[in-house]
Automatic annotation (TrEMBL):
Record pathway: Cell wall biogenesis; peptidoglycan biosynthesis
Domain Glycosyl transferase family intervals: 58-223
Domain of life per record: Bacteria
Pfam families: BiPBP_C, Transgly, Transpeptidase
Enzyme Commission number(s) of this protein: 2.4.99.28
Tagged with keyword Isomerase: no
Gene3D superfamilies on file: Biosynthetic peptidoglycan transglycosylase-like (1.10.3810.10), DD-peptidase/beta-lactamase superfamily (3.40.710.10)
Biological process according to GO: peptidoglycan biosynthetic process; proteolysis
NCBIfam families attached to this UniProt entry: PBP_1c (TIGR02073)
Species, as recorded: Tropicibacter naphthalenivorans
Enzyme superclass (EC): transferase
Protein name: peptidoglycan glycosyltransferase
Domain Penicillin-binding protein transpeptidase: 298-520
């Protein structure tokens, strides 16, 4: 009976102690388990473009267990906590062993801290030197094991383990010390990441590479002895040098990354392609090297079929203060110069006002109080609309703008997604010559519509923002005609690949902005070069300064040929066009045709050169007939010399393009 009472008392004491222990563990305060991680900006494939430190300047990157090489976990658990998956926060076997070693040797031989206890220490930023601190960690470790799964505890370790300096967590450590994501690690790399948290400051690879290498090799040898890796692999990897410094964090697309992070914390997935972005940033920096440091540049490359921006460079150097490199010039309103002209011609084609082979007059003209002039001050007379666009003449495009109406041009811009800034309020004829503020991003979207059969596809730079909303600003035939004309321009002398490109250059008033925008069958690119403060850049022309960079930018993606003409496209010569489309604008006088010289009945002296003839009225071309014989056709000038040298009476007749005729009879002596 006494033994039974003793046993019952013992069981009661054990149960009481267990209940008290449970209550003590359950009442343990749990520190915050969620910690701020570095905001990340990633490309279309999930590759890191740019990351930002958290408060205190720490690099602490979000990482999931499946983003880490399994070899790391095998090494970590084998080295730090062999019974991690079997204990409840405290390894009693390891604790007993450590206590016996202390009693026997008078000093610590091996530790007994579990991974869960290490997580408890990281969560509380506590110390292990005092028994009170150790006891608090054991209590918290037991509490964590009751509330979290083993995977959640490992995740906390991956995010909080110290790796030296301002590097915290496995992923930040892999990127900074190894220059790679932790998804694929060699045994030596995994061993280094296991060893560093034990003494993060004294083993920092940038300050103590020998200590880091020694600690890493110790882990490798232990892993080989425990059968985690082959001994041959351990010995081979021990020969690898330890990292000697920090790898820089990716700092790509700084302007766009800043825009993304400004919208909120966390991860931001963009449409950019890391390889294309890297290549384009390198290209722009190299292209602008040696030029004035006050000069900036912006380049956008997009897929005009999907509207996705693949690369965006807001300045050659984000850190350049003289050139205001921190300003994203892809978003800055500037004068587009002549780069709006293709839209004007496209609208004229689409509305039946002109055809690429329509003749248009390039001569001095006055539009109310507005008297535009060509850039070079010269005039070409009558020429095809196609050629007027290729030569970027001002008078013809203003004639077309007047016929379209500036308000309709403004409406087309707005339908294309452009938010034009008008300094004077209502749009005028100067709109088509660059008298408006637009951004390079907006011009890219406009040209994407020209490249995509006249349909606008809103440009997107966030993967989540993709939209199917479309507007039609031109018909497919008109858009193709514009592209076909611009593809006929000779590329810059320095341009190599990518192949045939439809492109247009522009220079704003005062040489403040140099533009080049172009496309192939899939990609569209915009280049802007100038000073962010808007001051002139003497001698800067779009064709000389921006066009070579445009072709080099397009060569960063695989060239796609321009499309064939849509079935409805009118591929006709001028003579085959309907009469209203043969000429545009101020036409030659259409009053009654009359031969004003020589007068009827006149007697003239013969001359070896012939007889001078002057016409009034009618419409060219003219046909000259003498005594019912056709002498000349296709005469376009109202003054010419008729090849008449024979003496006697001659009847001269002139027939114009509309069939009007005028006759005179003269005598030659």
């Amino acid at each position: 009976m006494k033994r039974l009472l003793t046993l019952a008392l013992a069981l009661w004491l054990v149960a009481f102690a267990r209940d008290r222990l449970d209550a003590w563990v359950d009442s343990a305060p749990i520190p915050p388990l969620i910690h701020a991680t570095s905001p990340e900006v990633r490309d279309r494939n999930g590759d890191l473009l740019r990351a930002y430190t958290v408060d205190g300047g720490l690099w602490r990157m979000e990482v999931a267990l499946d983003q880490v090489d399994p070899l790391f976990f095998e090494m970590l658990i084998a080295y730090e906590d062999k019974r991690f998956y079997h204990h409840h926060g405290i390894d009693l076997i390891a604790t007993s062993r450590a206590a016996w070693q202390v009693l026997r040797n008078g000093r610590v031989i091996s530790g007994a801290s579990t991974l869960t206890m290490q997580v408890a220490r990281l969560l509380t930023d506590g110390t292990t030197g005092q028994w009170q601190g150790k006891l608090a960690q054991m209590r918290l470790a037991l509490a964590l094991e009751r509330r979290l799964t083993k995977k959640q505890i490992l995740s906390l370790y991956l995010g909080l383990a110290p790796y030296g300096g301002n590097v915290e967590g496995l992923r930040a450590a892999a990127l900074i010390w190894l220059g790679k994501e932790p998804a694929r690690l060699t045994p030596a790399e995994a061993a280094l990441l296991v060893a560093l948290p034990q003494a993060p400051e004294s083993r920092r690879p940038d300050r103590h590479p020998d200590a880091a290498r020694t600690a890493r090799n110790r882990v490798l040898l232990r892993m080989a002895r425990d059968g985690v890796i082959p001994m041959a692999a351990a010995r081979s990897d021990q020969l690898d040098p330890a990292p000697l410094g920090r790898h820089p964090m990716p700092q790509l697309a700084p302007h766009m990354a800043d825009r993304a992070v400004a919208s909120g914390p966390g991860r931001h997935d963009l449409t950019l392609d890391r390889a294309v972005q890297t290549s384009l940033e390198t290209l722009v920096t190299r292209y602008m090297t040696g030029r004035s440091d006050r000069l900036s540049a912006a380049v956008i490359l997009a897929d005009h079929q999907t509207g996705e921006i693949l690369a965006s460079v807001g300045s050659p150097d984000y850190t350049n203060k003289a050139g205001q490199g921190f300003v994203d010039m892809t978003q800055a309103q500037r004068s587009p110069g002549s780069t709006l002209k293709p839209l004007v011609y496209g609208l004229a084609f689409d509305r039946g006002l002109a055809h690429p082979e329509t003749l248009i007059l390039d001569a001095p003209a006055q539009f109310g109080n507005y008297a535009p002039q060509n850039f070079d001050g010269q005039y070409r007379g009558e020429l095809p609309v196609r050629r007027a666009l290729q030569l970027s003449l001002n008078i013809p495009v203003v004639r077309l703008t007047e016929a379209l109406g500036p308000a309709h041009l403004m409406t087309a811009l707005q339908k294309a997604g452009v938010k034009p800034g008008l300094p004077g309020g209502a749009p005028g004829l100067a709109l088509s010559l660059g008298g408006v503020g637009v951004t390079p991003a907006e011009m890219t979207q406009l040209y994407a519509a020209l490249a995509n059969g006249g349909q606008t596809t809103p440009l997107t730079w966030r993967k989540a923002d993709k939209t199917n909303a479309k507007n039609t600003i031109l018909g497919p035939a008109a858009a193709w005609q514009v592209g076909h004309i611009l593809a006929g321009l000779a590329p810059p002398a320095s341009a190599g690949p990518p192949g045939k490109v439809a492109y247009k250059t522009g220079t704003s008033y005062g040489h403040r902005d140099a533009w080049a925008i172009g496309w192939d069958g899939r990609y569209v690119a915009t280049v802007w070069i100038g000073r962010p403060d808007g001051t002139p850049v003497p001698g800067a022309f779009g064709g000389d300064l921006a066009a070579p960079l445009l072709f080099q930018a397009l060569s960063r993606v695989k060239h796609t040929p321009l499309p064939a003409p849509p079935p409805e496209t009118l591929l006709l010569s001028n003579a085959q066009l309907p009469e209203p489309l043969q000429r545009f604008g101020p036409r030659e006088p259409t009053q009654t045709l009359k031969i004003s010289f020589p007068p009827d009945g006149a007697t003239l002296q013969t001359s070896p050169a012939g007889v001078p003839v002057k016409l009034r009225g009618g419409r060219a071309p003219y046909t000259l007939i003498a005594n019912d014989t056709v002498l000349q056709t296709g005469l376009r000038r109202p003054e010419f010399t008729a090849p008449l040298t024979a003496k006697g009476f001659t009847t001269l007749a002139i027939i114009d393009a509309k069939g009007q005729a005028s006759r005179v009879t003269i005598e030659l002596n």
